[in-house]
Amino acid sequence: MITISLCMIVKNEEDVLERCLSSVKPAVDEMIIVDTGSTDRTKEIAEKMGAKVFDFEWIDHFAEARNYSFKQASSEYILWLDADDVLMPEDLNRLIELKQTPGFNFDYVSMKYHLSFDENGNPTYSFRRNRLVKRSNNFQWIGPVHEYLAVQGYGYRSDIAVTHKKIRYVTGRNLRIYLSRLEKGEEFTPRDQYYFANELCENGRFEEAIEWYDKFLDGKQGWIEDNISACSRKAACYNALDRKEEAMRSLLQTLELAPPRPDFCCQLGDLFVELQRFPEAIYWYSQALLTSENNSELGFHNPATATWLPHVQLTLCYDRTNEKKKAAEHHKKAKEINPHHPSVKFNDDYFKGLGLI
Q1: Closest CA to 210 of 225, 184, 228, 232
Q2: Quick one: 119 and 147 in the same domain?
Q3: Which residue ranges does the record assign to the Glycosyltransferase 2-like domain (predicted)?
């Protein structure tokens, strides 16, 4: 059976740290907590949970802090989490089973990362991250912010999922780091360009975000999933600026990179709904139901865009074009998949009133 060191970097996480450590403790052999300047009870909680606590002077560089945490590990494998992540009971059991796999000798293991959820607790945004790595390989984290773990060798795609349960948001920190680097004259890598644009977008600086998305896309050096996401996010920026035609062109740009995906189809459908162009919206929502196989686990995606959500939107569109029976048919399909969603409940009352269900 392999041994695992849990390695984490933290700061002022007293509200969530015990929850995180409790969720994973039965599966790991040691817990390494690197504190980057907490002023609350974070270190006290870590020690109470049996973790080894180390201090690291914060230098606006996430990769340096994570690499330092990895250096403190002593087990065969290293697992990393953030303080607001947890392993659900079924995933904890999967990790314990993985530890006991005979002849386990993978260089790295990827796990699903569930970032947000619907009202039923089903993941709405997920992607994969390399979570468990062989310590002897000395894999390194790269990047001051939005860092990534550079791995190579023999990998394994596990069914284990890490669940993100954020209860507070740090606003402006990452953007501040990027702006400071820019002011110092640092040259941004394509990855930096992409994530800087994301930070600008999330902070409402849409015009600047568009410029950086274009710079990233024009360079043609980015990972394809980031390229697709950049087009989608750029469209959202244009939409926020009420520049609908440019938003559409940005979405259509994704077709140069990959076949249409459900997220893209629904996003384009939403634009046509806003423009009251319901026949075009119907086309794209219908395509979303036909393109689920084009989803990629590597990038961000919302599973709802290939299941119940297009049916809800088709219900709206057919109702607006006065095709009530078709609208009712799609409502029934949405209800079969997600009966508790507020829109589905509202539509149920509506069609009952019309005598169509």
Answers
A1: 232
A2: yes
A3: 5-138
